[in-house]
């Protein structure tokens, strides 16, 4: 009994230590798991996609901000045709309304939309209308790429901007000639697609990459316990539906699997705004960088020279005075970036030069030209 009692405290301490080690391992593994993304966030499934719709219509009820009928013949013809369909003959009448605007109506038909469901649409002025504020879209058929009508739009437009003007000033906020109609279109035709008849599904990567495609296939095979997934190219992973499993259940489980996507070493530069985005895998070989600028400042301060009072033959002249200053930035020194530096070290090294984003763009392009930047530069 004495030996057992002495061993119990040691056993408890050992179990406590093991539990602490396990918790530490879970805590350390959490960031790695958080870096992974769900498959549904980095890829699309075959057949699950939106379809673009477009239509031409009229917006009425504007407060004198519509199209000029005399300058916009398509607005006039559309108005006359609409009234004729309603039994009103205005072919020979003089029409000069200012509360009608021709518009283009666009929207997206979500996948598996059923007849009777509603979708949002965007209304944009086609003529010279000043604003669509307060207007109402009349019945507008929305066509698909095949020319068939899939939805019909109508409703009160909602404009996010406005325009107010007077004789000497004009104030414009946002774009008053563009508006939205939430749930403004009614789906009239369905796109037939039966997923139950599929015996295989293709997963399309949004950012094609060999490594990411292989990781997705490995994650799916590990989950199913069978080699059902196989990458066919950098952008596609083909999954064979296992026997006795329906496609919907398979995709529901697959889209929740987490995969760490790989990416190319890339530097994205927007010279217009001076924006620089550097990827995590960007590396720089050993290189020395010096950045300096030559500034020449010329200042003109002309002076007026006048003759003495009551002098003969004298005249007033302008005497030029020029001051030229040259700043060669002699304090700029070479900074050495060691080879194979990480993203953080690269940023720290560039920041140590004390330069702005636009000068940094020139440095990155020069380092790339020297062959020391192991990444692709993409200029937007």
From TrEMBL:
A Pfam family that this protein carries is FlgI
Q: Where is the signal peptide?
A: 1-34
The parts of the chain that form a coiled coil are none
- For whether the record's keyword set contains Amino-acid biosynthesis, the answer is no
Major place of residence? other
GO BP terms: namely: bacterial-type flagellum-dependent cell motility
Top-level taxonomic group: Bacteria
Is Signal included in the keywords of this UniProt record? yes
What family does the database annotate? Belongs to the FlgI family.
Task: Relate the protein's function as given in its record.
Answer: Assembles around the rod to form the L-ring and probably protects the motor/basal body from shearing forces during rotation.
What is the recorded name of this protein? Flagellar P-ring protein
Source organism per entry reads Caenispirillum bisanense
- Record lineage: Bacteria, Pseudomonadati, Pseudomonadota, Alphaproteobacteria, Rhodospirillales
Q: Which gene encodes it?
A: flgI
């Amino acid at each position: 009994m004495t030996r057992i009692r002495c061993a119990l405290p040691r056993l408890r301490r050992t179990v406590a230590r093991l539990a602490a080690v396990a918790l530490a391992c879970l805590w350390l593994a959490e960031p790695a798991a958080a870096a992974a993304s769900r498959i549904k966030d980095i890829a699309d499934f075959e057949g699950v996609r939106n379809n673009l719709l477009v239509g031409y219509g009229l917006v009425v009820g504007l407060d004198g901000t519509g199209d000029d009928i005399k300058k916009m013949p398509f607005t006039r013809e559309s108005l006359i045709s609409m009234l004729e369909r309603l039994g009103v003959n205005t072919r020979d009448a003089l029409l000069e309304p200012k509360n009608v605007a021709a518009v283009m109506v666009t929207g997206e038909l979500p996948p598996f939309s059923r007849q009777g469901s509603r979708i949002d649409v965007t209304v944009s002025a086609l003529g010279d209308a000043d604003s669509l504020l307060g207007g109402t879209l009349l019945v507008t058929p929305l066509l698909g790429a095949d020319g068939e009508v899939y939805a019909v739009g109508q409703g009160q437009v909602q404009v996010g901007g406005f325009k107010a003007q007077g004789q000497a000033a004009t104030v414009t906020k946002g774009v008053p000639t563009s508006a939205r109609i939430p749930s403004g279109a009614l789906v009239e035709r369905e796109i037939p697609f039966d997923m139950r008849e599929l015996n295989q599904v293709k997963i399309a990567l949004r950012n094609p990459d060999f490594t990411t495609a292989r990781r997705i296939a490995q994650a799916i095979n590990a989950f199913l316990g069978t080699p059902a997934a196989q990458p066919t190219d950098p952008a596609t992973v083909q999954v064979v539906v296992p026997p006795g499993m329906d496609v919907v259940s398979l995709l529901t489980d697959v889209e929740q699997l987490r995969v760490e996507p790989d990416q190319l070493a890339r530097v994205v530069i927007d010279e217009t705004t001076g924006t620089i985005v550097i990827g995590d895998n960007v590396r720089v070989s050993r290189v020395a960088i010096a950045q300096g600028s030559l500034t020449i400042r010329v200042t003109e301060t002309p002076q007026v020279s006048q003759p003495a009072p009551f002098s003969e033959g004298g005249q007033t002249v302008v005497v030029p005075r020029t001051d030229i200053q040259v700043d060669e930035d002699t304090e700029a020194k070479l900074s050495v970036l060691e080879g194979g530096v990480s993203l953080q070290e690269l940023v720290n090294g560039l920041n140590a030069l004390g330069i702005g984003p636009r000068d940094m763009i020139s440095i990155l392009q020069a380092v790339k030209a020297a062959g020391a930047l192991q990444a692709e530069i993409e200029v937007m």
